[in-house]
Amino acid sequence: MQEQFKFHMPTEILFENGLTQKMGRYIKGSSVLIISDPFLYKNGTAQRIGDTLAGKTVTYFSDIEPNPSCESVDAATAVARESKADCVIGLGGGSSLDVSKIVSCLVTNPGSIYDYYSGGTRVLESRTTQLVCIPTTAGTGSEVTNVGVFTNRKTHIKMPMVNNQFWPDIAMIDPQLTYTLPSAVTASTGMDAFCHAIEAYWNKNALPMCDMLSMGALKLIIDNIKTAYDTPSNCEARSAMIVASLVAGISFSQTRTTGIHALSFPLTTEFGASHGTACSITLPAFIRVSSQYEAQKMNSLVHYLGYESVEQFADAVEALMRSMNMPVRLHELGVQEKDIPHIAEVGLSAAIIQLTPADMNQKTVEALLRSIL
Amino acid sequence: MQEQFKFHMPTEILFENGLTQKMGRYIKGSSVLIISDPFLYKNGTAQRIGDTLAGKTVTYFSDIEPNPSCESVDAATAVARESKADCVIGLGGGSSLDVSKIVSCLVTNPGSIYDYYSGGTRVLESRTTQLVCIPTTAGTGSEVTNVGVFTNRKTHIKMPMVNNQFWPDIAMIDPQLTYTLPSAVTASTGMDAFCHAIEAYWNKNALPMCDMLSMGALKLIIDNIKTAYDTPSNCEARSAMIVASLVAGISFSQTRTTGIHALSFPLTTEFGASHGTACSITLPAFIRVSSQYEAQKMNSLVHYLGYESVEQFADAVEALMRSMNMPVRLHELGVQEKDIPHIAEVGLSAAIIQLTPADMNQKTVEALLRSIL
Known about the structure:
Number of domains of chain A: 2
Family (chains A, B): Belongs to the iron-containing alcohol dehydrogenase family.
GO molecular function (chains A, B): alcohol dehydrogenase (NAD+) activity; metal ion binding
Largest interface: A-B, 35 and 35 residues
CATH class of the largest domain in chain A: Mainly Alpha
CATH superfamily of the largest domain in chain A: Dehydroquinate synthase-like - alpha domain
CATH topology of the largest domain in chain A: Dehydroquinate synthase-like, alpha domain
Domain Alcohol dehydrogenase iron-type/glycerol dehydrogenase GldA (chains A, B): 10-175
Oligomer: homodimer
Shape of chain A: globular
Organism (chains A, B): Acetanaerobacterium elongatum
Number of helices of chain A: 14
Domain Fe-containing alcohol dehydrogenase-like C-terminal (chains A, B): 186-372
Distance between the termini of chain A: 37 Å
Strand order of the largest sheet of chain A: 1-8-5-4-2-3
Radius of gyration of chain A: 20 Å
């Protein structure tokens, strides 16, 4: 047992197929802002939800880009303030959900996101606007975390912002919203959730409840991701995957992530890999490394998941990724030997890398990266 | 996967050995009321905690009896109002914790508990007094539920009261407080936690996160309860047991319990069995019954726990109870054949009995009871 731990996840979780078509009774006040990306607006998903909110004024903001910028946050905030939003609904992958978190605070907190983040010195006061997060991918878990990741366009730095005002009031989980996800997105977001679960499990901040949740999430993913990838309309697999993402989200919301996520930052910003791909490409290597330091715990996990050894598990994860056409070697992303010192350096600059249960320094991280070049 | 579920457990959990000796920074306001039973007051536990709250006015209320009455609640409320308590700390087993929940609300809500409970028609408004719950047994899980169980002395009826104001702000888990628990209490409260975990697992309201937590809690209990019973000073086993109780509490806080708890009510009130004993005496029988209706799920559980079959598991649980000198047959509590129809009837009057995954009626419940007479 750990010597000490904390657990706090105050968000109310509602799960039901079709829930977003009858969610009116959960929404407070008369003015609602729905924040999404352009795709979910154009394909009618945002409006289908807005149309169910009878008697309320619904405003849409749909200019959220991947890796959302502070400028997008400020633009959405202007709309939220103008519409006097009583409720902000974030709809989408991690980007829209993250933006909805800070916008719901800025409705009643003055100024720009820059006043509170990335060098800003103001402190967010209590949020009074309701915050509802609705994921449309089974991956980020953002609906049950108090973190938003924003990019400062001036400095080109992408940085997480952690704030207890960011816990959504409600996380609405509606598997139907994921039925039309393309297979490649199913694979990469699903493997992102896999990383969340296992990084929480081997984390130096690990705690018993999260260990239990991570084990359950990993089992759900292993049992269902390939089915969801092969047969996107398989409702049972889609439900299992969005629940796995949710559970993995609860787990890493308490522990934070580790080296996998730290190294994903340069692989995304400099080599263009999607977040899930950039994370999972180092996953088998991190399984092997972490198992040297957490041998007993990792053995318990892999036996629970039905594998005979950690080595067999790592191989199976790599085979699973290959079976979904995901890259498993860094050169597939365009990384060359000469890039490795720099990737290691950028990864080591993220504090979370030191939550990996292994000695993480320039030499060891370069060796890990070379092992999968 | 279930078709729908909800999960909401907003309490902040803090776990650390010795935490209650340095908890001042978590306590709000200047006036603190510590509610406990007479034993924890007389042996100095309550005062040792109060003494660490430097600069605050600390008042003690220590007249909490087992199966606390509404009269005790009203007496504690009078003290809380007089001391203008900013924070109410519940310290003890389930009784003190349950009383602290309603008292923290009644500081700012007028009248008696009878106005809100057991026929009362008033509704509790938002609680503004901080509520901190500190368990001293590893069993009830009350520190992470929104339920209090009170006895109406006028009608002699013991009834649960469920209210979202009852979620503690903070659950403080300090294993040290359990080091001196007598072995018999370790056994009965630990088996109560076992029942919470498994009743949440096979519950008709079951949900994925709670299934995962229940599995983990059951493993902790099976691996540690006998050690804690045999060697009360074993810190590792004590930590594991209080965490198991906590996790089982989170689990059943979402699902409620089932037939085991329903039948425990008459066994406690009419045959004087302690709550944990009254629950666990029917546990092996309920394992056998529930497994007929939840065969696959129960098989997954018992294999995870290291057993080959449900039957072997049920036998092992019974042997575990015997090894801790707990009764495993109803006649050991003084129950006779002629009492069985009445016990079944009273058990069936508790709504939770219908959350058992089995056909629960007068005939089936009597048969279950006769099988362990």
